Amino acid sequence: MSPGFLLWQVTTLWRRKISETLRPYDITHPQLVLLTSIVWNAQDSQVIQADLARHTKMDINQVSQVLKTLEKKNLIRRKESSKDPRAKELSLTTLGGDLLKQLIPAVEAIDHCFFKVLGTQQRTLCSLLRILKD
């Protein structure tokens, strides 16, 4: 069987579980990934849209659309960058931060349950996936 097809099947099963958990919060998986990535990237410096696209490997146009939705939901704030007037700095609102505090443990629990069948081979899987990602 094709490794690409297997990866697609596993990803589909895993994302289905994530989506089921997120549904009551009215948030999609891409929205959660970008919220989390804003926090992750903010540890180093100001966060702009292009940073998120690079970090998540998402298409820049998809990132833009998802960020617009997050802003409408009052989960993020966008303001003109102090370094580049063409770019927008991104930050979480209090509502976005509170939501993230609820969702991260729930998603981590899904990961734990989903991947626990691999036991000690989880590290190997992560190493192999990093090779493909990079």
What does this molecule look like?
There is one protein chain. This protein has 134 residues and is mostly helical. The chain has a domain at 24-103: Arc Repressor Mutant, subunit A. The protein is built from six helices and three strands. The chain has helices at 3-22, 29-42, 49-56, 60-72, 94-115, 122-133; strands at 47-48, 76-80, 88-92. Strands 1-3-2 form a three-stranded antiparallel beta sheet. A hairpin with a 7-residue loop joins strand 2 and strand 3. It is globular. The two termini are 24 Å apart.
Give the strand order of the largest sheet, numbering strands 1, 2, ... along the chain.
Answer: 1-3-2
**CATH domain class of the domain at 24-103:** Mainly Alpha
β-strand number: 3
Distance between the termini: 24 Å
The total count of helices amounts to 6
Characterize the overall form: globular
Query: From the 3D coordinates, which CATH architecture of the domain at 24-103 would you assign?
Result: Orthogonal Bundle
Summarize model confidence as the mean pLDDT. Answer: 92
User: What helical percentage do the residues reach?
Assistant: 55-70%
CATH topology of the domain at 24-103: Arc Repressor Mutant, subunit A
| Rg result | 16 Å
Structural class of the secondary elements? mainly alpha
Beta strand %? 5-15%
Strand and helix order: HHEHHEEHH
Low-confidence stretches: none
CATH superfamily of the domain at 24-103: Winged helix-like DNA-binding domain superfamily/Winged helix DNA-binding domain
Give a quick account of the main beta sheet: strands, pairing sense, barrel closure.
3 strands, antiparallel
